[in-house]
Amino acid sequence: HLHTGVHIVGTQLESQYWLVCWHWLSHSTVSYLDLAPATLLPPPQVAAYSESAGSRTPTSFRAALQSQCTALLDHSHARGMNQLQHLLESEQWVAVEVPAGFQAIVDRMVARCGEGAALLDGRTLSDAAAARVGAASASSSKSPSRNSSADGAAAAAGRDTSVEQHSRTLQLSGKAFHLVNSTLMLLKMLEDYTALYDLMPQFGAEIVHRELELLKLFNSQTAALVLGAGAMRTAGLRSISAKQLALSCQSIAMVATLLPLLRAGSLALVSQPRRALLMPEFDRLLQDLTMHMDEVHSKLVDIMRDRLTAAVQALPAEVKAAHPSSEQPSHTVTLLSRQLGTLRTVLVPLLLKEEVEFIFGAVTRAYSDALSELFEVLLAQDTASEGVIRVNALIMLQVGVTTCCGWVPEVTC
User: Fold this and answer.
1) CA 206 to centroid of chain Cα atoms
2) 58-72, 267-281, 301-315, 375-389: which range is least confident on average?
3) Model pTM greater than 0.90?
4) Nearest Cα residue to 278 out of 189, 201, 213
């Protein structure tokens, strides 16, 4: 609190604005007391207030404020982009627990975007606020029953129940997402952009544009580091596993789920001409995110196809070497069935149900075609191996039924 009566706000974001205001006030003929209410206004409104108070240089003051806002916006954006880049490059792609604070960030963003969607739809802001309050009330009415038993157990054990709660997943639009550390930090950065708009609503279009740049960076770098295996160089990973692919897909799926809400909330902040320019940017980003997820799904299918190719090459020799009356499956078939089961064990807890069905649907079609053809060729070449072929076919049939969404290979034994 300076002797001039101007409060310098604690955050770096606001204090830079107020330093500009204080510098102007110190060279102004307007009484500090006359401008006392201006110290309670958002920085972009100070210029308008100063004009009404009789400032001698309102034009230069407005230009100074605009220049300072632009510089601060550029600085904050560059810092956020660099921070996200470093976080992604050091990311180990391991699932982390979601603190309650980050779930609250998402809930606030969803509520704010709902108000923006109401404005775009022509509804009143009070209607959107009433809907948000109703949703919050419904959520709060459910939370005690969900957490009362855990809180009671913690109290009985003498633990501090005021400690922030954690969850294994982030809840968004009725879906649960397993996230990594850099994705949580991305959510915090998105909330920081919301704070920027609260300070500088006149710069809404510029803020939305930079928000899109941040999301594009996250998408492109995630693809380069996981799909492109860049994390083996930047983070020292020995390989990119199926679990890490699935976690990267979960992060991208979360952003893709959040993006339509951000689109509705962000576009309500800008004028109609700028809105028309920004809408295609959101559409292109959503298309890129969807393509990214499809590439991860295809990569997981390709991993199993490579193992299938190796199995098809090794299986004929094993069938010929096996005793005709043997009831033991070939080593290759046993290994193949174990790999399929392992993949399903990894993917089911992480990916959405429709994603798992798509991946294993593609895998089982490839396995059905390749193994059916191979078994028929082997049977035609040596009918004495019918027993061995039958055992291998039954093993794959069992794997298909239990782990591959009901796949039944078309095999004639």
Assistant:
1) 23
2) 58-72
3) no
4) 213
What is each CA distance from 130 to 115, 124, 140, 260, in whole angstroms? Answer: 10, 10, 15, 21
Asked whether the beta carbons of 162 and 31 are under 8 A apart, the reply is no
Rounded CA separation 55/29 (Å): 7
Number of H helices and E strands in the chain, helices first, is 13, 4
Residue 323 and residue 167: Cα distance in Å, rounded?
54
Q: Which among 308, 300, 304 has a CA at the least distance from the CA of 347?
A: 300
Sign of the dihedral through C-alpha 304, 362, 254, 102: negative
Helix (H) or strand (E) run with residue 171 in it: strand 170-172
Residue in the block written with tokens 């102004």: 28
Q: How far apart are CA 379 and CA 297, in angstroms?
A: 34
More confident residue, 72 or 64: 72
- Determine how β-strand 175-177 pairs with β-strand 170-172: antiparallel
Q: What is the DSSP letter of 170?
A: E
Residues 19, 12 contacting (CB under 8 angstroms): no
